[in-house]
Amino acid sequence: MSWLTDTLTSSIGRKVIMSLTGLFLIIFLIVHLSGNFQLLMDDGGLQFNAYAKFMTSNPLIKFTSYGLYAFILLHIIMSAVLAAKNRKARPVGYAKVKGSANSAWASRNMGILGTVILIFLVIHMRSYWYEMHWGDIPMDAAGNKDLFKVVSASFAQWWYVAIYVVSMIFLAFHLSHGFSSAFQTLGVNHKKYTPFIKGLGIVYAILIPAAFASIPLYMFFNN
């Protein structure tokens, strides 16, 4: 187990772990978005409720979900450890130098962006994941828990929609740096394809959060 200890205690090892978990979460966002789009189906939420039941009852999906939670925690822990190490390593004088000349705003504020996203995740999990497992949710016409009704009720409140949309903006900035940074950390860095990766990262960072934000906005204005 010495290799694991060395990985977790070295700066490079922590960055690799954070990059790998970040890429996994990037893929998960696409899967999660495809499920959320079922909220827009004109069937009273029956298809979304069936999807929610499948995602919370299928043994393979449940096992994958536990892995997802572990990756989220590991990503957060590695990020916090690296941020603490960086603050400790930098002298006070260096911190006073304006970073805008050498780095993007998102890269200098990944900790703040990540903290806001973490707070949103806690709210999001409490609102839906917790309710789906332990909340008193009525059944729909197909005999599934009517999670659609819970989501519709939350998206009918302007302040919740505002929190959701603002959080997606923070997520967009977080992804705009994290996407290409993850590949660079893993050694995928070459003048031929690095510009493509950076461009793809920007497109992803705009489209995915915008798609997520469009769902509560659509449901709010059409409720």
Automatic annotation (TrEMBL):
Highest taxon of the lineage: Bacteria
Recorded GO CC terms: membrane
Transmembrane segments annotated in the record for this chain: 12-33, 66-84, 105-125, 157-175, 196-221
Record's keyword terms, sorted: Membrane, Transmembrane, Transmembrane helix
Claim: Transmembrane helix is one of the keywords in the record: yes
SUPFAM superfamilies per record: Fumarate reductase respiratory complex transmembrane subunits
NCBIfam families in the record: sdhC_b558_fam
Name under which the protein is recorded: Succinate dehydrogenase cytochrome b subunit
Species, as recorded: Marivirga atlantica
